[in-house]
Amino acid sequence: MRKYNVAIIGATGMVGREMLKIIHDSSFPVNKLRLFASIASAGTKLSCEDETYIVEKIEPGSFTDVDIALISAGGNVSREIAPQAVSEGAVVIDNSSAFRMDVNVPLVVTEVNAKALRKHDGIIANPNCSTIQLVVMLKPIQTAFGLKKVIVSTYQSVSGAGKNGVDELIDHTDLMLKDKKTQPNKFPVSIAFNVIPQIGEINENGDCFEEVKMMNETKKILANEHLQVAVTTVRVPVMIGHSEAVYFQTEKETMLEDIISILSQAKGIKVYEPECFPTALDSQCDDDVLIGRLRSCLGSNDEFLGWIVANNLRKGAALNAVQIAEYLIREDLL
């Protein structure tokens, strides 16, 4: 089997470290793995299993021997680095929002729309972490019964805001337990013992940036521009694992048992028994999208409710990016 040269840009971040771990833990056909980060992080040593890597800074020509570049370093870095990587011969899988809504860039969740990868010009976008777990659930339902409307409330962990978000939760929790004042930095108000119903700036319509991303990305991935999608995104004091309460309306009337059956057979999904439910802690040891609390809405045959949980660092980011890379290799699309 041919092996490939892979680069991880943003390797010292939480998602970058997960990418490194996933590649090591899987059978990914790596020839040479190179890690890149900011100038401040250049020279840092990162270890995974028995391998130690020296983090490099990005320079002209850094990607001339790279087949696949996994970028998770923020939108500004992606807009600068992705074109360079493509021009030097790499295929880019980008974890930021920089290219997601570009009509020429596939926005892909492998269980949902992997065939979109057949039309790429060198850059592929990894969706928002909350969008990924949502569309993994919605796709089998849309295929079987059609979809009219989706209303989602998210409960997103602080790791979605990076290491600084995790550190702020730890620090603020410690301060509040000692009855000391906190000073928010990463979040608009203190996150400890609190929930914050805003992720990103609020626009003129009253939607915040995270909500707009989820609404637009869901319709693009499902190729359903007529789908009505409404979202409220909430940050909660959880370390890892995003949860979502979802209402959805199908085009065809059906029974709850049929919804459960379809989801139980879908790839990448684990459906919990009615009396059980997944939590954010469960997602830390499971790469599937976990679904529970499935039920009819007020006895309707076309309106249903459910609860979705997934690991935002892995399936919501790093794992999905690696799965895209694996599909590209398997289908000879590099």
Structure description:
The chain has 334 residues and is α/β, with parallel strands linked by helices. The chain has 9 helices and 13 strands. Helix content is 31%, strand content 22%. The strands form 3 sheets. A 6-stranded mixed sheet has the order 9-8-10-13-12-11. The chain folds into 2 domains: 4-127 and 317-330, NAD(P)-binding Rossmann-like Domain (Rossmann fold, 3-Layer(aba) Sandwich); 131-311, 2-Layer Sandwich (Dihydrodipicolinate Reductase, domain 2), CATH 3.30.360.10.
Mean pLDDT: 97
Proportion in helices? 25-40%
CATH homologous superfamily designation of the largest domain: Dihydrodipicolinate Reductase, domain 2
Question: Could you tell me the strand content as a percent range?
Answer: 15-25%
**Roughly how many Å apart are the termini?**
15 Å
Please give the CATH architecture of the largest domain. Answer: 2-Layer Sandwich
Secondary structure category: alpha/beta
CATH T-level topology of the largest domain: Dihydrodipicolinate Reductase, domain 2
Largest sheet: 6 strands, mixed
Uncertain segments: none
Cross-sheet strand order for the largest sheet: 9-8-10-13-12-11
Number of strand segments: 13
List the helices and strands and how they pair.
Blueprint: E1 4-9, H1 14-25, E2 30-36, E3 45-48, E4 51-54, E5 68-71, H2 75-87, E6 91-94, H3 110-113, E7 123-125, H4 129-145, E8 147-155, H5 163-177, H6 209-221, E9 228-232, E10 242-250, H7 256-265, E11 269-271, H8 280-283, E12 289-296, E13 303-310, H9 314-330
Helix pairs in contact: 1-9, 4-6, 4-9
